[in-house]
Fold each of these.
Amino acid sequence: MAVLDVLGVNVHIEGDGAETVVMVPGWPDTYRLWDRQVEALKDRYRCVRFTLPGFDKEKPRKAYTLDEHIAFMDAVIARVSPGKQVIFLLHDWGCIFGYQYYLRNRDKVAKIIGVDVGDPSSTLRALTAREKLIAFWYQTWNAFAWKIGGVIGDRMMHAMAHWGRAPSDPAQITSRMGYPYWMLWFGGRDSYNRHGRRFEPECPMLFIYGCRKPLRFHSPAWAEKLAAKPGNEVVEFDTGHWVMSQQPERFNEVVRKWLIEH
Protein backbone atom coordinates (compact mmCIF):
# COMPACT_ATOMS: atom_id res chain seq x y z
CA MET A 1 0.00 0.00 0.00
CA ALA A 2 1.29 3.44 -0.94
CA VAL A 3 0.54 6.53 1.15
CA LEU A 4 0.64 10.03 -0.31
CA ASP A 5 0.48 13.35 1.53
CA VAL A 6 -2.04 15.60 -0.22
CA LEU A 7 -2.51 19.00 1.41
CA GLY A 8 -1.62 17.47 4.78
CA VAL A 9 -4.00 14.50 4.49
CA ASN A 10 -2.79 10.89 4.18
CA VAL A 11 -4.14 9.27 1.00
CA HIS A 12 -3.92 5.47 0.87
CA ILE A 13 -3.62 3.59 -2.44
CA GLU A 14 -4.01 -0.16 -3.05
CA GLY A 15 -4.49 -2.17 -6.25
CA ASP A 16 -3.13 -1.92 -9.77
CA GLY A 17 -6.22 -1.74 -11.97
CA ALA A 18 -6.62 0.56 -14.94
CA GLU A 19 -9.56 2.36 -13.30
CA THR A 20 -9.35 4.34 -10.06
CA VAL A 21 -12.03 4.20 -7.36
CA VAL A 22 -11.91 7.11 -4.91
CA MET A 23 -13.58 6.06 -1.64
CA VAL A 24 -14.81 8.87 0.62
CA PRO A 25 -16.23 8.13 4.10
CA GLY A 26 -18.29 10.37 6.37
CA TRP A 27 -19.13 10.73 10.06
CA PRO A 28 -17.65 9.42 12.34
CA ASP A 29 -15.47 7.24 10.14
CA THR A 30 -11.93 7.03 8.86
CA TYR A 31 -10.48 5.55 5.69
CA ARG A 32 -10.68 2.13 7.39
CA LEU A 33 -14.44 2.09 6.74
CA TRP A 34 -13.64 0.74 3.28
CA ASP A 35 -11.34 -2.16 4.31
CA ARG A 36 -13.71 -4.87 3.05
CA GLN A 37 -14.38 -3.01 -0.20
CA VAL A 38 -10.68 -2.59 -0.94
CA GLU A 39 -10.16 -6.32 -0.46
CA ALA A 40 -13.01 -7.05 -2.88
CA LEU A 41 -11.99 -4.55 -5.57
CA LYS A 42 -8.21 -4.18 -5.53
CA ASP A 43 -7.64 -7.08 -7.94
CA ARG A 44 -9.42 -5.10 -10.66
CA TYR A 45 -9.33 -1.46 -9.53
CA ARG A 46 -6.92 1.03 -8.02
CA CYS A 47 -8.49 1.90 -4.68
CA VAL A 48 -7.83 5.36 -3.23
CA ARG A 49 -9.13 6.37 0.19
CA PHE A 50 -8.60 8.89 2.95
CA THR A 51 -10.08 10.16 6.19
CA LEU A 52 -11.97 13.43 5.66
CA PRO A 53 -9.83 16.54 6.20
CA GLY A 54 -10.12 17.63 9.83
CA PHE A 55 -11.30 14.22 11.10
CA ASP A 56 -7.87 12.71 11.85
CA LYS A 57 -7.09 13.21 15.55
CA GLU A 58 -3.37 13.36 14.73
CA LYS A 59 -3.89 16.38 12.47
CA PRO A 60 -4.65 20.03 13.37
CA ARG A 61 -8.21 20.83 14.43
CA LYS A 62 -9.92 22.78 11.65
CA ALA A 63 -13.36 23.28 10.12
CA TYR A 64 -13.27 23.02 6.31
CA THR A 65 -15.55 24.94 3.98
CA LEU A 66 -17.25 23.28 1.02
CA ASP A 67 -14.83 25.01 -1.36
CA GLU A 68 -11.89 23.65 0.65
CA HIS A 69 -13.28 20.11 0.47
CA ILE A 70 -13.73 20.40 -3.28
CA ALA A 71 -10.22 21.80 -3.70
CA PHE A 72 -8.81 18.94 -1.62
CA MET A 73 -10.63 16.29 -3.64
CA ASP A 74 -9.45 17.93 -6.84
CA ALA A 75 -5.86 17.80 -5.56
CA VAL A 76 -6.25 14.10 -4.73
CA ILE A 77 -7.62 13.25 -8.17
CA ALA A 78 -4.88 15.27 -9.86
CA ARG A 79 -2.26 13.23 -7.97
CA VAL A 80 -3.74 9.75 -8.30
CA SER A 81 -5.42 9.91 -11.72
CA PRO A 82 -4.01 12.80 -13.78
CA GLY A 83 -5.92 13.32 -17.00
CA LYS A 84 -8.20 10.32 -16.42
CA GLN A 85 -11.67 10.07 -14.92
CA VAL A 86 -12.26 8.38 -11.55
CA ILE A 87 -15.10 6.40 -10.01
CA PHE A 88 -16.56 7.71 -6.74
CA LEU A 89 -17.61 5.41 -3.88
CA LEU A 90 -19.22 7.70 -1.30
CA HIS A 91 -20.96 7.47 2.07
CA ASP A 92 -22.59 9.95 4.45
CA TRP A 93 -20.71 13.30 4.35
CA GLY A 94 -18.56 11.74 1.64
CA CYS A 95 -21.72 11.79 -0.49
CA ILE A 96 -22.34 15.46 0.22
CA PHE A 97 -18.79 16.50 -0.67
CA GLY A 98 -18.45 14.04 -3.55
CA TYR A 99 -21.74 15.05 -5.17
CA GLN A 100 -20.82 18.73 -4.98
CA TYR A 101 -17.38 17.99 -6.41
CA TYR A 102 -19.00 16.15 -9.33
CA LEU A 103 -21.38 19.05 -10.06
CA ARG A 104 -18.37 21.34 -10.46
CA ASN A 105 -16.11 18.80 -12.20
CA ARG A 106 -18.35 16.54 -14.29
CA ASP A 107 -15.56 15.76 -16.74
CA LYS A 108 -13.41 14.19 -14.00
CA VAL A 109 -15.92 11.61 -12.70
CA ALA A 110 -16.94 8.58 -14.79
CA LYS A 111 -19.34 6.86 -12.37
CA ILE A 112 -20.75 7.40 -8.89
CA ILE A 113 -21.71 4.90 -6.20
CA GLY A 114 -23.59 6.71 -3.45
CA VAL A 115 -24.36 4.94 -0.18
CA ASP A 116 -27.40 5.90 1.92
CA VAL A 117 -27.36 9.67 1.23
CA GLY A 118 -29.12 11.17 -1.78
CA ASP A 119 -29.74 14.73 -2.92
CA PRO A 120 -30.03 16.83 0.30
CA SER A 121 -32.51 19.39 -1.05
CA SER A 122 -35.10 16.81 -2.10
CA THR A 123 -34.45 14.74 1.03
CA LEU A 124 -35.44 17.58 3.35
CA ARG A 125 -38.77 18.05 1.61
CA ALA A 126 -39.53 14.31 1.86
CA LEU A 127 -38.91 13.95 5.61
CA THR A 128 -41.78 13.59 8.05
CA ALA A 129 -42.04 15.97 11.01
CA ARG A 130 -40.65 13.25 13.28
CA GLU A 131 -37.71 12.62 10.96
CA LYS A 132 -36.96 16.35 10.79
CA LEU A 133 -36.93 16.52 14.58
CA ILE A 134 -34.50 13.57 14.82
CA ALA A 135 -32.25 15.12 12.17
CA PHE A 136 -32.22 18.49 13.97
CA TRP A 137 -31.43 16.82 17.30
CA TYR A 138 -28.48 14.69 16.21
CA GLN A 139 -27.02 17.29 13.87
CA THR A 140 -27.06 20.13 16.38
CA TRP A 141 -25.72 17.75 19.06
CA ASN A 142 -22.74 16.98 16.84
CA ALA A 143 -22.35 20.65 15.97
CA PHE A 144 -22.08 21.64 19.63
CA ALA A 145 -19.77 18.71 20.34
CA TRP A 146 -17.41 20.32 17.81
CA LYS A 147 -17.85 23.79 19.31
CA ILE A 148 -17.32 22.64 22.90
CA GLY A 149 -14.40 20.37 22.04
CA GLY A 150 -12.08 18.86 24.64
CA VAL A 151 -13.11 16.00 26.89
CA ILE A 152 -16.78 17.03 27.01
CA GLY A 153 -17.02 17.38 23.24
CA ASP A 154 -15.36 14.00 22.76
CA ARG A 155 -17.81 12.37 25.16
CA MET A 156 -20.74 13.94 23.33
CA MET A 157 -19.44 12.58 20.03
CA HIS A 158 -18.88 9.11 21.48
CA ALA A 159 -22.43 9.11 22.88
CA MET A 160 -23.92 10.00 19.49
CA ALA A 161 -21.77 7.44 17.67
CA HIS A 162 -22.94 4.80 20.15
CA TRP A 163 -26.60 5.82 19.66
CA GLY A 164 -26.17 5.63 15.90
CA ARG A 165 -24.40 2.24 16.12
CA ALA A 166 -21.46 3.54 14.13
CA PRO A 167 -18.96 0.74 13.36
CA SER A 168 -15.85 2.93 13.66
CA ASP A 169 -13.09 2.35 16.19
CA PRO A 170 -14.11 4.46 19.24
CA ALA A 171 -10.45 5.35 19.79
CA GLN A 172 -10.53 7.34 16.55
CA ILE A 173 -13.76 9.26 17.27
CA THR A 174 -13.34 12.81 18.58
CA SER A 175 -15.30 16.06 18.67
CA ARG A 176 -13.38 17.35 15.65
CA MET A 177 -15.60 15.09 13.51
CA GLY A 178 -18.53 17.36 14.29
CA TYR A 179 -17.39 20.36 12.29
CA PRO A 180 -19.48 19.54 9.15
CA TYR A 181 -22.61 19.85 11.29
CA TRP A 182 -21.40 23.16 12.70
CA MET A 183 -20.71 24.42 9.18
CA LEU A 184 -24.13 23.20 8.05
CA TRP A 185 -26.11 24.99 10.77
CA PHE A 186 -23.88 27.81 11.99
CA GLY A 187 -21.36 28.37 9.20
CA GLY A 188 -22.73 31.78 8.24
CA ARG A 189 -21.52 32.82 4.79
CA ASP A 190 -19.62 29.51 4.58
CA SER A 191 -22.62 27.36 5.50
CA TYR A 192 -22.89 24.28 3.31
CA ASN A 193 -26.57 25.15 2.84
CA ARG A 194 -25.63 28.38 1.08
CA HIS A 195 -23.23 26.78 -1.39
CA GLY A 196 -24.69 23.35 -2.15
CA ARG A 197 -26.33 22.61 -5.51
CA ARG A 198 -29.14 20.21 -6.37
CA PHE A 199 -27.67 16.82 -7.26
CA GLU A 200 -28.99 15.14 -10.41
CA PRO A 201 -26.13 13.15 -11.97
CA GLU A 202 -25.63 12.79 -15.69
CA CYS A 203 -23.05 10.01 -15.34
CA PRO A 204 -24.03 6.40 -14.46
CA MET A 205 -24.88 6.02 -10.77
CA LEU A 206 -25.52 3.16 -8.37
CA PHE A 207 -27.39 4.19 -5.24
CA ILE A 208 -27.46 1.79 -2.28
CA TYR A 209 -29.37 2.46 0.92
CA GLY A 210 -30.39 0.75 4.13
CA CYS A 211 -34.06 0.69 5.12
CA ARG A 212 -33.67 0.00 8.87
CA LYS A 213 -32.89 3.38 10.42
CA PRO A 214 -34.72 6.19 12.32
CA LEU A 215 -34.83 8.54 9.33
CA ARG A 216 -34.23 8.51 5.61
CA PHE A 217 -31.31 10.27 3.97
CA HIS A 218 -32.85 10.32 0.50
CA SER A 219 -36.14 11.12 -1.17
CA PRO A 220 -37.99 8.12 -2.64
CA ALA A 221 -39.01 10.32 -5.57
CA TRP A 222 -35.37 11.25 -6.22
CA ALA A 223 -34.32 7.58 -6.12
CA GLU A 224 -37.18 6.59 -8.45
CA LYS A 225 -36.16 9.28 -10.95
CA LEU A 226 -32.53 8.20 -10.69
CA ALA A 227 -33.36 4.52 -11.31
CA ALA A 228 -35.38 5.39 -14.42
CA LYS A 229 -32.28 6.55 -16.29
CA PRO A 230 -30.40 3.91 -18.33
CA GLY A 231 -27.21 2.77 -16.63
CA ASN A 232 -28.42 3.68 -13.16
CA GLU A 233 -29.50 1.31 -10.40
CA VAL A 234 -31.05 1.71 -6.94
CA VAL A 235 -30.68 -1.15 -4.45
CA GLU A 236 -32.31 -1.43 -1.02
CA PHE A 237 -30.59 -3.36 1.79
CA ASP A 238 -32.10 -4.60 5.04
CA THR A 239 -29.52 -2.68 7.08
CA GLY A 240 -28.99 0.58 8.86
CA HIS A 241 -26.88 3.51 7.67
CA TRP A 242 -23.56 1.65 7.35
CA VAL A 243 -24.55 -0.77 4.61
CA MET A 244 -20.99 -1.66 3.59
CA SER A 245 -20.19 -2.79 7.15
CA GLN A 246 -23.46 -4.52 8.00
CA GLN A 247 -23.77 -6.61 4.83
CA PRO A 248 -20.30 -6.43 3.27
CA GLU A 249 -20.50 -9.58 1.13
CA ARG A 250 -23.71 -8.60 -0.65
CA PHE A 251 -22.63 -4.97 -0.83
CA ASN A 252 -19.35 -5.89 -2.52
CA GLU A 253 -21.13 -8.24 -4.91
CA VAL A 254 -23.62 -5.55 -5.98
CA VAL A 255 -20.90 -2.92 -6.40
CA ARG A 256 -18.53 -5.14 -8.34
CA LYS A 257 -21.27 -6.44 -10.66
CA TRP A 258 -22.53 -2.93 -11.42
CA LEU A 259 -19.03 -1.61 -12.09
CA ILE A 260 -18.26 -4.43 -14.51
CA GLU A 261 -21.58 -4.09 -16.36
CA HIS A 262 -21.46 -0.31 -16.64
Amino acid sequence: MKYIQQHEPSGGCVFCAAHKAAQDGPHNLVLFRAEYSFVILNAYPYSNGHLMVVPYVHHPTIEDLGREVRTEMMELVSQAMTVLRSVYHPEAFNMGANIGAAAGAGIAAHVHIHILPRWAGDTNFMSTIGQTRVIPEELPETYRRLREAWK
Protein backbone atom coordinates (compact mmCIF):
# COMPACT_ATOMS: atom_id res chain seq x y z
CA MET A 1 0.00 0.00 0.00
CA LYS A 2 1.19 3.47 -0.84
CA TYR A 3 0.92 4.90 2.71
CA ILE A 4 3.06 2.10 4.17
CA GLN A 5 5.72 2.31 1.48
CA GLN A 6 6.06 6.09 1.92
CA HIS A 7 6.02 6.08 5.72
CA GLU A 8 9.04 7.75 7.30
CA PRO A 9 9.09 7.99 11.10
CA SER A 10 9.70 11.53 12.28
CA GLY A 11 11.17 10.56 15.62
CA GLY A 12 8.55 12.56 17.55
CA CYS A 13 5.11 11.67 18.82
CA VAL A 14 2.76 11.13 15.87
CA PHE A 15 -0.24 12.19 17.98
CA CYS A 16 1.39 15.45 19.05
CA ALA A 17 2.38 16.14 15.44
CA ALA A 18 -1.20 15.50 14.27
CA HIS A 19 -2.54 17.74 17.04
CA LYS A 20 -0.21 20.60 16.03
CA ALA A 21 -1.06 20.44 12.30
CA ALA A 22 -2.42 23.71 10.92
CA GLN A 23 -5.18 21.95 8.99
CA ASP A 24 -6.79 18.54 9.18
CA GLY A 25 -7.14 16.20 6.26
CA PRO A 26 -5.92 12.90 4.85
CA HIS A 27 -2.32 14.03 5.52
CA ASN A 28 -2.74 13.93 9.32
CA LEU A 29 -5.87 11.70 9.48
CA VAL A 30 -7.59 13.86 12.15
CA LEU A 31 -11.36 13.54 11.69
CA PHE A 32 -12.67 15.63 14.56
CA ARG A 33 -11.36 17.95 17.28
CA ALA A 34 -13.07 18.54 20.60
CA GLU A 35 -11.99 20.69 23.54
CA TYR A 36 -9.57 18.23 25.19
CA SER A 37 -9.08 15.46 22.64
CA PHE A 38 -9.44 14.47 19.01
CA VAL A 39 -10.42 11.54 16.78
CA ILE A 40 -7.89 10.19 14.29
CA LEU A 41 -7.72 7.29 11.86
CA ASN A 42 -5.15 4.62 12.62
CA ALA A 43 -2.44 4.81 9.92
CA TYR A 44 -1.99 1.02 10.18
CA PRO A 45 -5.59 -0.15 10.63
CA TYR A 46 -6.59 -3.56 11.88
CA SER A 47 -9.92 -3.13 10.07
CA ASN A 48 -11.53 -0.49 7.86
CA GLY A 49 -12.61 2.46 10.00
CA HIS A 50 -10.11 1.78 12.81
CA LEU A 51 -10.24 5.01 14.84
CA MET A 52 -8.50 6.32 17.93
CA VAL A 53 -9.48 8.94 20.48
CA VAL A 54 -6.42 10.85 21.67
CA PRO A 55 -6.06 13.53 24.35
CA TYR A 56 -4.18 16.69 23.41
CA VAL A 57 -1.94 16.31 26.47
CA HIS A 58 1.00 13.94 26.10
CA HIS A 59 0.68 11.43 28.98
CA PRO A 60 1.35 7.68 28.99
CA THR A 61 -1.65 6.58 31.04
CA ILE A 62 -5.29 7.46 31.42
CA GLU A 63 -5.18 8.10 35.16
CA ASP A 64 -2.81 11.02 34.51
CA LEU A 65 -5.62 12.82 32.66
CA GLY A 66 -8.16 15.11 34.28
CA ARG A 67 -11.76 13.99 34.75
CA GLU A 68 -12.98 16.37 32.01
CA VAL A 69 -10.49 14.87 29.51
CA ARG A 70 -11.44 11.28 30.36
CA THR A 71 -15.14 12.14 30.17
CA GLU A 72 -14.79 13.81 26.80
CA MET A 73 -12.74 10.89 25.47
CA MET A 74 -15.50 8.42 26.38
CA GLU A 75 -18.11 10.66 24.74
CA LEU A 76 -15.98 10.71 21.59
CA VAL A 77 -15.70 6.90 21.69
CA SER A 78 -19.50 6.73 21.74
CA GLN A 79 -19.79 9.28 18.93
CA ALA A 80 -17.18 7.39 16.88
CA MET A 81 -19.17 4.16 17.23
CA THR A 82 -22.31 5.95 16.02
CA VAL A 83 -20.49 7.33 12.97
CA LEU A 84 -18.86 3.96 12.21
CA ARG A 85 -22.26 2.22 12.44
CA SER A 86 -23.76 4.66 9.93
CA VAL A 87 -20.89 4.34 7.43
CA TYR A 88 -19.68 0.73 7.69
CA HIS A 89 -22.57 -1.13 9.38
CA PRO A 90 -20.29 -3.29 11.55
CA GLU A 91 -21.67 -6.26 13.45
CA ALA A 92 -19.60 -5.51 16.56
CA PHE A 93 -16.76 -3.41 17.96
CA ASN A 94 -13.51 -3.83 19.80
CA MET A 95 -12.77 -0.83 22.01
CA GLY A 96 -9.88 -0.38 24.38
CA ALA A 97 -6.49 0.99 25.26
CA ASN A 98 -3.08 -0.65 25.53
CA ILE A 99 -1.46 1.16 28.43
CA GLY A 100 2.31 0.61 28.31
CA ALA A 101 4.61 -1.26 25.94
CA ALA A 102 4.16 -4.56 27.80
CA ALA A 103 0.42 -4.31 27.08
CA GLY A 104 1.09 -3.93 23.36
CA ALA A 105 0.97 -0.14 23.02
CA GLY A 106 2.65 0.91 19.79
CA ILE A 107 2.84 4.50 21.05
CA ALA A 108 3.19 3.96 24.78
CA ALA A 109 4.11 7.55 25.66
CA HIS A 110 0.76 9.05 24.54
CA VAL A 111 -2.34 7.24 25.77
CA HIS A 112 -5.17 6.65 23.29
CA ILE A 113 -8.33 4.56 22.92
CA HIS A 114 -8.90 2.34 19.89
CA ILE A 115 -12.32 1.78 18.28
CA LEU A 116 -12.38 -1.05 15.75
CA PRO A 117 -15.45 -2.02 13.76
CA ARG A 118 -15.74 -5.82 13.39
CA TRP A 119 -17.62 -8.27 11.21
CA ALA A 120 -18.13 -12.02 11.52
CA GLY A 121 -15.35 -13.71 9.58
CA ASP A 122 -13.10 -10.64 9.32
CA THR A 123 -10.21 -12.76 10.58
CA ASN A 124 -9.27 -15.18 7.83
CA PHE A 125 -6.33 -17.24 6.64
CA MET A 126 -4.40 -14.12 5.56
CA SER A 127 -4.17 -12.79 9.13
CA THR A 128 -4.10 -16.18 10.85
CA ILE A 129 -1.54 -18.01 8.73
CA GLY A 130 0.04 -15.33 6.52
CA GLN A 131 0.30 -12.78 9.35
CA THR A 132 -0.94 -10.15 6.89
CA ARG A 133 -4.00 -7.88 7.11
CA VAL A 134 -6.09 -7.19 4.03
CA ILE A 135 -7.85 -3.82 4.13
CA PRO A 136 -10.13 -3.36 1.10
CA GLU A 137 -10.27 0.44 1.32
CA GLU A 138 -7.40 2.94 1.14
CA LEU A 139 -7.02 5.45 3.99
CA PRO A 140 -7.88 8.57 1.95
CA GLU A 141 -11.23 7.00 1.01
CA THR A 142 -11.88 5.95 4.62
CA TYR A 143 -11.02 9.47 5.72
CA ARG A 144 -13.39 11.01 3.17
CA ARG A 145 -16.29 8.76 4.13
CA LEU A 146 -15.89 9.20 7.89
CA ARG A 147 -15.20 12.95 7.76
CA GLU A 148 -18.37 13.43 5.71
CA ALA A 149 -20.40 11.34 8.17
CA TRP A 150 -18.91 13.11 11.23
CA LYS A 151 -20.41 16.44 10.08
Amino acid sequence: MFAWIVTAVMVVGVVLAIRTAWKRQQQVRAADEARLRTMAQVSIAAMKKKQEAAKATPPVSAAPTREERECPFCAELILAKAKVCKHCGRDVEPLA
Protein backbone atom coordinates (compact mmCIF):
# COMPACT_ATOMS: atom_id res chain seq x y z
CA MET A 1 0.00 0.00 0.00
CA PHE A 2 2.83 2.38 0.90
CA ALA A 3 4.51 1.71 -2.49
CA TRP A 4 1.33 2.79 -4.29
CA ILE A 5 1.25 6.08 -2.43
CA VAL A 6 4.92 6.78 -3.14
CA THR A 7 4.41 5.91 -6.81
CA ALA A 8 1.32 8.12 -7.07
CA VAL A 9 3.10 11.04 -5.42
CA MET A 10 6.06 10.63 -7.79
CA VAL A 11 3.76 10.48 -10.85
CA VAL A 12 1.90 13.60 -9.70
CA GLY A 13 5.24 15.35 -9.10
CA VAL A 14 6.49 14.44 -12.59
CA VAL A 15 3.24 15.58 -14.19
CA LEU A 16 3.37 18.89 -12.32
CA ALA A 17 7.02 19.39 -13.30
CA ILE A 18 6.17 18.71 -16.97
CA ARG A 19 3.23 21.14 -16.86
CA THR A 20 5.36 23.83 -15.21
CA ALA A 21 8.12 23.39 -17.79
CA TRP A 22 5.58 23.48 -20.63
CA LYS A 23 3.99 26.70 -19.31
CA ARG A 24 7.42 28.29 -18.87
CA GLN A 25 8.32 27.31 -22.43
CA GLN A 26 5.12 28.93 -23.71
CA GLN A 27 5.91 32.13 -21.79
CA VAL A 28 9.44 32.25 -23.20
CA ARG A 29 8.14 31.64 -26.73
CA ALA A 30 5.54 34.42 -26.35
CA ALA A 31 8.21 36.83 -25.05
CA ASP A 32 10.52 35.95 -27.96
CA GLU A 33 7.74 36.49 -30.49
CA ALA A 34 6.88 39.86 -28.93
CA ARG A 35 10.55 40.90 -29.03
CA LEU A 36 10.81 39.83 -32.70
CA ARG A 37 7.62 41.74 -33.57
CA THR A 38 9.03 44.87 -31.93
CA MET A 39 12.34 44.50 -33.76
CA ALA A 40 10.51 44.06 -37.08
CA GLN A 41 8.39 47.16 -36.46
CA VAL A 42 11.47 49.23 -35.60
CA SER A 43 13.26 47.96 -38.71
CA ILE A 44 10.28 48.72 -40.96
CA ALA A 45 9.93 52.22 -39.45
CA ALA A 46 13.64 52.88 -40.07
CA MET A 47 13.36 51.72 -43.68
CA LYS A 48 10.31 53.94 -44.26
CA LYS A 49 12.11 56.92 -42.72
CA LYS A 50 15.13 56.27 -44.93
CA GLN A 51 12.94 56.04 -48.05
CA GLU A 52 11.15 59.29 -47.14
CA ALA A 53 14.48 61.02 -46.61
CA ALA A 54 15.71 59.75 -49.97
CA LYS A 55 12.56 61.11 -51.65
CA ALA A 56 12.89 64.47 -49.89
CA THR A 57 16.49 65.15 -50.90
CA PRO A 58 16.95 66.24 -54.49
CA PRO A 59 19.16 64.02 -56.61
CA VAL A 60 22.77 65.09 -56.86
CA SER A 61 23.45 66.63 -60.23
CA ALA A 62 26.21 65.16 -62.32
CA ALA A 63 29.58 66.84 -62.14
CA PRO A 64 30.38 69.18 -65.01
CA THR A 65 32.06 67.38 -67.87
CA ARG A 66 35.78 67.86 -68.23
CA GLU A 67 37.17 68.81 -71.59
CA GLU A 68 39.97 66.36 -72.23
CA ARG A 69 42.25 65.44 -75.08
CA GLU A 70 45.03 62.97 -75.73
CA CYS A 71 48.63 63.90 -75.09
CA PRO A 72 50.44 63.96 -78.47
CA PHE A 73 53.44 62.22 -76.91
CA CYS A 74 52.04 59.47 -74.65
CA ALA A 75 48.38 59.31 -75.80
CA GLU A 76 47.05 59.54 -72.23
CA LEU A 77 44.03 61.73 -71.50
CA ILE A 78 44.85 65.21 -70.16
CA LEU A 79 42.81 68.38 -69.71
CA ALA A 80 42.36 70.43 -72.86
CA LYS A 81 43.83 73.52 -71.14
CA ALA A 82 46.88 71.63 -69.79
CA LYS A 83 50.33 73.03 -70.58
CA VAL A 84 52.24 69.99 -69.25
CA CYS A 85 51.21 66.35 -69.54
CA LYS A 86 50.70 64.86 -66.09
CA HIS A 87 51.74 61.42 -67.35
CA CYS A 88 54.91 62.00 -69.34
CA GLY A 89 55.83 65.50 -68.12
CA ARG A 90 56.32 66.96 -71.58
CA ASP A 91 55.17 70.43 -72.56
CA VAL A 92 52.04 70.49 -74.74
CA GLU A 93 50.23 73.33 -76.44
CA PRO A 94 46.96 74.16 -74.59
CA LEU A 95 43.84 74.16 -76.72
CA ALA A 96 41.83 77.35 -76.75
